[in-house]
Amino acid sequence: LGATVNVLAIESVMDQLAAEAGRDPVEYRLAHLAEPRARAVIEAAMEMAGPPPPRAEGTGRGLGFARYKGSSAWC
C-alpha cells in the first residue's frame, strides 16, 4: 500500500537533488541508473514526449519513474 507514496517521495528527492546539482532531472536519473531495462524505459518515454515546450511561468513537464517488484514492470 505504501508503494505509490514511496515512489512519490523518491522521485521528489531525485528532482531536488538534480536541482541542487544544476542538472536536468532526466539526465540526473540516467547518470545514477545502471539497469539497462530501466534506462530504456526512461529514454523511450522521453523520445515519445518529444522536445520540451518553451518554459513559461507556472508551467513545466515532469517524469515519474517506478519499478513494480511483483511483476518486474518498469513504468
Textual characterization of the structure:
The protein has 75 residues and is mainly alpha-helical. Helix content is 53%, strand content 5%. The longest helix has 19 residues, at 3-21. It is globular. The model has no long low-confidence stretch (mean pLDDT 86).
On the 0-100 scale, what is the average pLDDT? 86
Largest sheet: 2 strands, antiparallel
Question: Radius of gyration in whole Å, from Cα?
Answer: 13 Å
Q: Using the alpha-carbon principal axes, give the shape.
A: globular
Task: Summarize the topology.
Layout: H1 3-21, H2 25-31, H3 36-49, E1 67-68, E2 73-74
Antiparallel strand pairs: 1-2
Précis, in short:
The chain is mostly helical. Helix content is 53%, strand content 5%. The chain has a two-stranded antiparallel sheet with strand order 1-2.
Keywords for this entry:
single chain; two-stranded antiparallel sheet; globular
